[in-house]
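FW: tagging you since you asked about this chain on Friday. Here's the raw sequence from the shared folder, copied in full. Didn't touch anything.
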Amino acid sequence: MPKPDVITGLDIGSGQVVAVVAKLDPDTETPEAVGAARQACPGLKGGVVINIDETARSITRAVEAAEEMAGLTGATRGVLIGVRGGHIQTFNHHGAMNIARTDKEITLADRDQVVESTKAVPISPDREIVHVIPQDFILDRQSGVPNPVGMEATLLETDVHIVTASQSHLNNVWKAIARAGFDVEEPIYGLLAVGDAVVTAEEKGLGCLLIDVGGQTTGLAVYAEGSVRFTKELPIGSDAISHDLSHALRTSLLQAQKVKEKHGAASRPLAEGNIDEDIEYTSVDGRTPRHIKRSTLFDYIAPRVEEIFTLVSEELQRSNYADHVAGGGVVLTGGGAQLQGLSAAVEQILDLPVRLGLPQNLTGAPEILANPGYATALGVVTYRHLGDWSRSRRAVRRVGLGQKLRGLVEDLF
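HL: got it, structure written out here
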């Protein structure tokens, strides 16, 4: 029986590295998630590398742990990376070209050329284009054409969503991955990858809002008429709740995180179980026992939840796409989405239906697929735009298995 190829996706997120190992069986030609791991990373802050060596160590540990779970120790050579953080900037742009030939039928080359023309937008020299995502095409002023190839027109236009990133940040990510011993593929904007993984085609068509709650950032993506229309990274995430608990309980951040995950809830009315339970934890010295009533935790958690999603609501209003998301509602994902009662709290704050976003149409271990904290890394290994128009301006180094993995993913998607 042939040995399956291995695709490893990394989510270089806010304060942690997430790795997902997927195997591609030649018989099924479908990636199957077989290993996953998360590793805290002091070398990352808000999705930006602040210490290359620390980040490299965290990458190595995350990949090794995911490989161990998969029973594929040492199988990873190349990685696909999802990048996030405040250094990401996005905007919509427009491109146009005349079809001067006697034969006015649009070819694949014409389609690619008009999309490529949108890259001629002035951007700061310290930034580079990571993705150009077509939203739709316009033929002789007729909009809403998903694919113009084979149709006739004298004027071909396109609206696109452009994602740019800091060159220095991407270079630092490249260095950290290389130092960890892996080949490097093109960067993928993690928010778009998670959107492809957890948002359905129907939701994108109706219009919806994706909210990805990370540790230090919260990502927003608006989909309408089948395409991404707006993306934004807010510089606040679920770690803010942990910091609040750390100060209030006079304990370490790690201990506060554990208390939040095991006993927390978005608010008192949304808590399940015994809210009067006595919670024991250790003080900041790691030894002295302390106690708190569970219901008191909610007094510290609820205000921060309200703040985060009020900011989300305000950003949605500023985007001018608030009227486009009522049909599909909100898809909530990310590690922070696991807080008990959060979906119901977001529904109350945004006055929109909310569902928890888990990967669609993927196979693999249930404990991986059911964890929204793995959604971005899962999306990275199956990102549908890889090899399409999503190319940065850099000449990316691809060697060994890394180049082979890229070919496999392009052939599939």
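FW: The chain has four domains: 5-86+168-192+360-412, 89-165, 201-237+304-356, 239-302.
HL: agreed, and The longest helix spans residues 294-318.
FW: great, closing this out.
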